[in-house]
Amino acid sequence: MATREKAARAISRLSRAHPSNQDALARSGAVELATSLLQPKKWNPSKMMGSFQKKAQPSTAARLPKSPATLLKGATSDKATEEEAAAEREADELEKAAKVLALNARHATQKELCASLWSLTFGNASNQGAVAEAGGIPLLIALLDSHPDIHRDAAGALWSLAADANNRRLIAEANGIPQLVELLKPGKLGARSPAQETAAGALHSLAARFENRAAIAEAGGIELLIPLFEGASAEAKSEVEGALLELGKENLSNQFSICNKLVALIAKGPDNAAEACADGSPVTIARVEAQEHATRVINVLSLDRDHREALSSSGAIYQLIRQLKGGSPTAQVMAASALTQIARMSPELRIQVVQHLVGQLSATDPNVRQRAGTALREMNTKSDAAGGSAMDDAKVQREAAMAGGVAPLVELLKDGLNDHRVEAQEYSLWSLSLTTDASRRQAMVEAGVITPLVQSLSSGQLSEVAQQHAAMVLSCLAIDRCNHDEILACGAIAPLVGLIKDAKQTLGAKKNAAIGLARLALSTPSTQERIFHAGAVPPLVAWLGDGSLGPPETAASTLADLCNDANAAMQARLLEAGAIGPLVAMLHLQAGVEHQRAAGGALAILAEGCPSNMVAIAHAGGIPPLVELLRSGKVGAHKNAAHALAMLAGDEANKMQIARAGGIPPLVALLSTGDASAQQYAAKALEWLARDCVENQIALANERASAPLVGLLGSESLETQASAVTALLCLASHPESRDTVVQRLVAVLEGRDTAAQLKASEALSALSARSASNRHVIVISGAVEPLVRLLGNGQSCETNTPPERAAAVLADLARLSEAKVRIAQSNGICAFVTMLSSSSAESQTHAAVALCHLSASAENKGSITALDAIPLFVALLARGTPKARTHAAGALWNLATSAEVKCAIVQANGIGQLVLLLGETELPEARESAAAVISELTRSNKSNLPLIADAGAIPPLVVTMCEGTAGAQKHATCALWGLTQEKTEGARYRTELAKTEGAVARLVELLKGHEGETQGFAAATLVGIAQDADGQEAIRSAELASNPAIWMVTEDTLGPAFITDEHMAEIACKIKVGDRVLVVEMSDQAERHAEVMFVGKIPELANGYWVGVEYDMPVGKNDGSVKGRRCFECAPGFGAPDDL
User: Fold this and answer.
1) SS3 content of the chain, % helix, strand, coil (to 5)
2) ∠ CA 494-546-509 to the nearest 5 degrees?
3) Backbone angles phi, psi at 1079, to 5 degrees
4) What is the pLDDT of residue 375?
5) In terms of Cα–Cα distance, which of 931, 837, 833, 930 is closest to 879?
6) Any idea where the CAP-Gly domain is (predicted)?
7) Is residue 119 predicted with pLDDT exceeding 80?
8) SS3 letters for 513-557?
9) Do 552 and 462 share a domain, yes or no?
10) Which residue has the higher pLDDT, 23 or 940?
11) Residue 91, pLDDT score
12) Of residues 364, 356, 464, 495, the one with CA closest to residue 419
């Protein structure tokens, strides 16, 4: 036995000495020999000891009590018996000792044989297979039930053999797993067995086979492995960790079991490892070490998302927080790592982890706060181990940070300030910086974040990263201008400017601070001044030329916002600060797109409305690189280049420089290829380039710019539309371009783009208002018909719609005779009449203007009247715009040539409105038209006279006669004359007129200073007044003779002509309207009865005084009209003028 033991030990040592020895020994047959010598024998210590005890007992006869008879038989034999018994006992002891020695020798030999096989197969696949082939696996498994001294080496041999996949199967099939699990059990009084280490190692290797994992768990392996963390050897603990990790792979049940038992193990340990181990208790130290190992396993498990459910349901997060708070240093690191990984498994788990960690930020122990803060930072800065996208990870971060809403984070910031807990402040700031949507910004403000935010940023205690987060939150809050007052009141400008000045700050902090200042600068010019005086401009200008100091593109944008709304003072200060030179340098093509974009935008703002900066930018060489950017087509950069050129083109010298630099072609191209804002800037640039510059207008015509400009009329941007319209109008200033522009605009009217039709109509309206030649071009280009079609039926014509804009164009075109015809032929009159009732004041006005012009044509009068337009005109006199009222009155004047229209005016209660219009001193044209219509009504139908007088017409007619236009004076005088001719109430009207202040004197003035109709009406009116006593008294009070001709001249100048006229005037004073007379023709002495209808002068016919009569029979010559002038109204063929 001893020889075998020594040989086996030698084989084991040789195999361990060098791997090559394993192969050499195998070739010598060591594997097969060692395997063949394995002799398993079940170890039963109780039975074995019982056998030994039985051999050592005396015989039955010796053990039986001696009877009295025996005792009496002879005492002489007692001594001999005792000696024999002693000899027998000695022989038994010797036999027992020999058997024990033999048994121990056998166990030692088996142990060494197992050790030799362990060494021969360690890392040697060939020998592992050879042992299996030699039948060693069942023998080794059987030896696990043999003497305890053999267990460690037998399990070790199985551990080495299990490195082979086939052997893992064979061991399981030979029922080796339960035997190995059995070795994990503690001995008596909880003693640890050396075999636990190798058994754990064997189970670790066996667990690599999927089927074995369930078998190990069913055998109770998990329950027995985990307790080994407490008190087992370091090697055993290492194998336990490996075994547990293998057992959890692809086995959900094992995962739950492992996690639950690990969490339970940690929970049994102390809350504070350092305090618990202070007394040096081995038990406590072992328990703390167990917590550490369990935490390490959980950390490794957390790397795989497959363990998410198990970790979540086991309560691992809470126990990891305990370890982070009070575990050993190693456990703290492992716990932080595990929490980070668990948080990345799902948004829900992240929320749980974050909430627990945030709670630790309020801990009294600064070390705990520091560890929690570090864990939170690492959790949110490391990439997603599971391979999720950065966008997804950022989303999860936001959701976790905001799980409890904004308010708790703001409170955490406040508490951190109050207690000087920087970690709490920094985490709060980081969390708040993750989300910038409008609703959460509002929630932050409502929770009172602004004041503590500024205080925290100003405290000087935050880390550079935290300051970056604080600046980001402030800049985001500054997006909403409603927050600006509070931000400024809290003194935010100083710390933000401090960040951009601090060379030690991160670029992120500087960028966020600059953005925040830029947004604040958009509020008011006074804020821009405050930012400037805080010293923001010099460092920002320095950034423009040195990107290491700060992002140049951010500096450019911020400087631009400091000049927002064309702040002239700030524009001048930036010029003095030297910003223009480096901004121009940023434009060159070797610079990045963002640099070029920002520089172009800043130069545009600096140049806007600032002639000195326009010149400075040009002198700095800014125009050529801006044009190059246009050609480059770089997205964003070329748009801002167009903006800058648009602002620079306000300078006359720059216009030509831009053109000479080749700026016009790319600007024209941008109208078609750019986005909406690029098109707007390009259109604005072309507008300025074409304005009052014939050379550029010709260049634009050569580039056929009108086509893309017309295409922009339908843009969604109102500014783009406006710029396109203005640019087209500038192009149309040149005769060679005008016709093309008009034709393109007319073509737009035929399309279906409502917005484009609207702007095309506006452009045509502006062109039409410029000159008659433009109106002619518009008409002959075929604009009338599509414009009328745009009117529709005249009902849908709200302001700023294509029908309303088309009406504006047609109203202006209707001044042309050819347009009148085309509008009528296109049925435009009907639409315009309908528009008179529109709810849009603009549409009403356009319709009134158009119909006023159209009614001047005899061919259109009947159509307008037939559409019942008269009441609508009358209604417009009361509620229309001043322009609408003027043209409504004008239309009524044009239409009042027939008795039917006059009757319609009266029936529509037009007299009262016309009288009111006489009092509109600010509407001279309207007064003239109103006076003309009233004049027609006084002469057309005697029944109108009381209505006119009762409407209070005499005073405003007198005022109009005194103050109105020449035409208004004539019509007012005529109307007054008509009122004096009324038969029934004429005396009352004449008296009222005579008593109206200034009436008689003005009539005399009209006689003296006027000629023609006005003079005649004045004379006739005076003749009428003189018929009554009141009138005569008025004339005498005015020191006027009854003969106006005598009052008008001195006696020295009287001659035959005046005497004749005097006599005729005296005769005229004796003849009154309404008198019945007998007219005798000198040629045939025929006598005709008639009624006097008119007394006065008719210059159109001849000098002198005339009497108009209406014959009783149709023997007259007219209807009361003489050469286009209506003196009175009667049936055709009944009227005639007769001289005195």
Assistant:
1) 70, 5, 25
2) 40
3) -100, 125
4) 79
5) 837
6) 1097-1135
7) yes
8) HHHHHHHHHCCCHHHHHHHHHCCCHHHHHHHHHCCCCCCHHHHHH
9) no
10) 23
11) 62
12) 364
Residue 887 lies in a domain: no
**Dist. CA 338–CA 344, nearest whole Å:** 10
Q: What is the dihedral of CA 1054, 1060, 1064, 1069, to 10 degrees?
A: 20
Residue 117: give its domain's CATH number: 1.25.10.10
Do the domain assignments include residue 597? Answer: yes
Write out the DSSP string of 1079-1095: EE-TTT--EEEEEEEEE
Which range, of 79-93, 550-564, 627-641, 680-694, averages the lowest pLDDT?
Answer: 79-93
Tell me, what amino acid is at 906? V
Strand, helix or coil at 1076?
A: strand
Residue 694 in tokens:
């014939």
Domain boundary among 507, 535, 563: 535
Can you count the helices (H) and strands (E) in the chain? Answer: 71, 6
| 3-state SS assignment for residue 357 | helix
Locate 652 and state its tokens: 């006359």
Structure tokens at 449: 């974040």
Pick the closest to residue 724 from 661, 735, 753 (CA basis). 753
Whether 868 maps to a domain, the answer reads no
Supply the DSSP string of 922-986, one letter for each residue. T-HHHHHHHHHHHHHHHHH-TTHHHHHHHTT-HHHHHHHHHHS-HHHHHHHHHHHHHHHT-SSSH
- What does the alpha-carbon distance between residue 290 and residue 296 come to, in Å, rounded to a whole number? 10
My answer on whether 523 and 543 are in the same domain is: no
Residues 628 and 560 in one domain: yes
Q: Are 433 and 474 in contact (CB under 8 A)?
A: no
Which tokens go with 702?
């050569």
DSSP three-state, residue 1135: strand
> Greatest CA span in the chain, whole angstroms?
221
- Same-domain check for residues 520 and 571: no
Please state which of the ranges 15-29, 60-74, 389-403 shows the lowest mean pLDDT. 60-74
pLDDT at position 189: 47
CATH number of the domain within which 1115 lies: 2.30.30.190
What is the count of structural domains for the chain? 4
Q: Are residues 647 and 531 in the same domain?
A: no
CA angle 928, 929, 934 (to 5 degrees): 100
Which pair of structure tokens corresponds to residue 1082?
């000198």
Q: What pLDDT does 19 receive?
A: 85
Q: Is residue 317 part of a domain?
A: no
Q: Contact, 572 vs 612, CB < 8 A?
A: yes
- Is residue 547 located within the same domain as residue 529? no
Q: What is the pLDDT of residues 80-115, one digit of tens each?
A: 567 667 767 666 665 555 454 454 567 888 888 999
Q: Reply yes or no on whether the pLDDT at 1117 is more than 80.
A: no
**DSSP alpha helix (H) spans, 226-328:** 234-247, 252-268, 273-276, 282-301, 308-313, 316-326
| Domain edge (last residue) among 662, 677, 706 | 662
Residue 1051 has a pLDDT of 36
If pLDDT is split at 50, 70 and 90, which confidence band does 1106 have? confident
Full domain range(s) for residue 1120: 1071-1140
Within its chain, how far is the Cα of 572 from the centroid?
Answer: 33
Q: In this model, does residue 1046 exceed pLDDT 60?
A: no
pLDDT, residue 400, reads: 52
What is the rounded distance in angstroms from the CA atom of residue 879 to the CA atom of residue 870?
15
**Residue 754: both structure tokens together:** 């409502």
Long-range CB pairs of 1123-1130, under 8 A, 24+ apart, other chains included: 1124/1100, 1125/1013, 1125/1098, 1125/1100, 1126/936, 1126/939, 1126/940, 1127/939, 1127/1093, 1127/1094, 1127/1096, 1127/1098, 1128/939, 1128/1093, 1128/1094, 1129/899, 1129/939, 1129/940, 1129/941, 1130/1093
The mean pLDDT of the chain is 84
Q: 147 and 17, same structural domain?
A: yes
Residues 6 or more apart in contact with residue 231 via CB below 8 angstroms: 192, 286, 290
Cβ(893)–Cβ(861) below 8 Å: no
Both 512 and 543 in one domain: the answer is no
